[in-house]
Amino acid sequence: MKKTLYQKIFDRHVVHECDNELPIIYIDLHLIHEVTSPQAFDGLRYKKRNLRSPNKTFATMDHNVPTNSRNMYDATPMAKIQMETLINNCKNFNIPLFDLQNISQGIVHVVGPEQGLTLPGTTIVCGDSHTSTHGAFGALAFGIGTSEVEHVFATQTLRQARMKNMRVFVYGQKNNNIFAKDIILYIIKKLGTSGGTGYVVEFTGPIIKSMSMEERMTICNMAIELGAKSGIIEPDQTTFTYLKNKNFSPKNNSWNKYIHYWSSLKSDNQACFNRNISINISNIKPQVTWGTNPSQVISIQNKIPKINTLKTKIEKEDALNALDYMGLKENSYLINIPVDKVFIGSCTNSRIEDLRIVASVVKNKIISKNIKAYIVPGSGLVKKQAEKEGLDKIFIKSGFQWRHSGCSMCLGMNDDQLKPYERCASTSNRNFEGRQGKNGRTHLVSPWMAANIALYGKFININ
Amino acid sequence: MNKFIKHHGKILPLQSSNIDTDIIIPKQFLQKINKIGFGKYLFYNWRFLDSEGKIKNKDFILNNKIYDNSSILLTRKNFGCGSSREHAVWALIDYGFKVIIANSFSDIFFNNSLNNRLLLISLPEKKIDIIFNITKKQKKVFGYIDLLKQELTIEKKIITFNMSEAQKKSVIYGLDQIDDTMYYKKKISTYEENNYPGYIKYS
């Protein structure tokens, strides 16, 4: 039988399967952080169970960490307890931890790939929905809840239903200043926030093929915003080049064995996809969200839609609520609307390539005086590389705050938050109500767009 | 553990789609390190007008006394989308919900609910509309669920729903999934011994 890439990886990892039970699949890599793991560790202790594979479990702290220092005690008391709990749990269960004193600390979905922990053909889970990011390497990677975290701790397996297969074929002529973020927002706009529910989405086509690993990670990162279980991209030479000589990548002779295996990881020609979507990106302009879910998107030069042009009653109600929350009007432009804050960071867009794009826009320029702008690198290693290239000096000179790594304002679990009714251009992945702070108004954009908004202090249409 | 076969409860109609987990339980409440006491933070940003939770939003349905002690939440498509935080499920259960009826659920939220015996019933939009219409006509509407028959009865109207055997078993018996999987411990070890190159050794 001809198989999709997802089916190949899934089938390869089946430990046990029988009728009327969910298949048990093996998990190669379990990434953990401070927010979704404490209750799982408690569960192990309560049932007197061991952690099956400490050598396949890696921890970092990211969600709560202060980004204005590397001192845990600068965090809120509750956040500090969570970080201390992670430190103690990792010590007790012998799990490697990238803590605040470790240069490799960072956002879990930045750390995994840059350490070479994320490898093609593997199954990867983490108690975080954006685990789909790792699918960019041809891994089957998905987010799980705390009960499942405990299940992986105890058994190194998960019970998982087989998902349906969707292929999104991306083609066309990419315009200048159009980035992976614009492309994935455009796809989400086309398919909707539940368009991928029940599916693993394989992204393919010449546009995907031409992307760097950083761009592919941005695409797979936001597959979850389509409602998909995961996103996945066939590994190729770009993947192998990125992984070579990373800390945990296979070395020497075993590298060649793995390359041989990884090269076989592709969907068969006649593989059956339950759904095939083709997306032509030839005419798209920079994308920006106007509402409170990632499918409420427009090209910057377009107007927010008229309510009566929306298809369903539910869409109309959603749009009315979103406009009310966002303080916007239907059938109006975002252009010239002032912005209060700009956030460049998150597991979507905080890698070195993203920061280089921002630097290229703001070099020798000063950001608008009504703007507070933050750049939060995805990891200590990204920060170090940016500083080696002198990007930090460009940012600071422009008026940006140059921070330490962490999830930061993406979800505002630390002090990096919006005040009520503040408007933010953000390179993160979710524009939900209250996501960046109660009554905060989030607009998702690419790093290039965010940098331009910072300079002008408002939404701007630049060709 | 008690079997969950039948449930009779009051329906709370929450007329909204794409309710994400940030709405169900905002991030500031994810810093607790246990599983209990999340109910008071459920839909916090909708229930309260202030950050301290002192000023109730009178227009929000959870603050309407008529719906006190509701155990069945009726809502629209894509419920539980967004973050994988299981805290969302803990908050719903702690508040008193046993059943959620919606057009569709996010995949991760679905699994999290299953692991906590929160029953999710997925129905076509037309059937959801019918139930919403009943709740519009009269305020206190009760639902009766029979898991074995896979039937939901509201005001003498019987609606059937689909459910996989694995899902049904999980909700009815509330088995410890880890114990269940541990039964195949030998198979896991065999997999680890035999599976190169799918099996990675991080050194």
Describe this protein's structure.
The complex is a heterodimer of chains A (463) and B (203). Chain A has 463 residues and is of the alpha/beta class. Chain A folds into three domains: 5-159, 2-Layer Sandwich (Aconitase, domain 3), CATH 3.30.499; 164-280, Aconitase, Domain 2; 287-456, Aconitase, domain 3, CATH 3.30.499. Helix content of chain A is 32%, strand content 16%. The longest helix of chain A has 17 residues, at 77-93. The mean pLDDT of chain A is 94. With 203 residues, chain B is an alpha/beta fold. Chain B has one domain (6-175): Aconitase, domain 4 (Alpha-Beta Barrel), CATH 3.20.19. Chain B is built from eight helices and seven strands. In chain B, strands 4-3-2-1-5-6-7 form a seven-stranded mixed β-sheet, sandwiched between helices. Chain B is globular, with a radius of gyration of 19 Å. Chains A and B meet through helix 2, helix 3, helix 5, helix 10 and helix 11 of A and helix 4, helix 6, helix 7 and helix 8 of B.
Helix content bin of chain B: 25-40%
The percentage of residues in β strands of chain B lies in: 15-25%
Kindly name the structural category of chain A. alpha/beta
Give the CATH class of chain B: Alpha Beta
H/E series of chain B, N to C? EHHEHEHEHEEEHHH
Q: What is the radius of gyration of chain A computed over CA atoms, rounded to a whole number of angstroms? A: 21 Å
Number of DSSP strand runs of chain A: 19
Number of helices of chain B: 8
The number of helical segments of chain A is 15
CATH T-level topology of the largest domain in chain A: Aconitase, domain 3
**Tally of distinct domains of chain B:** 1
SS-derived structural category of chain B: alpha/beta
CATH superfamily of chain B: Aconitase, domain 4
Which CATH class of the largest domain in chain A applies here?
A: Alpha Beta
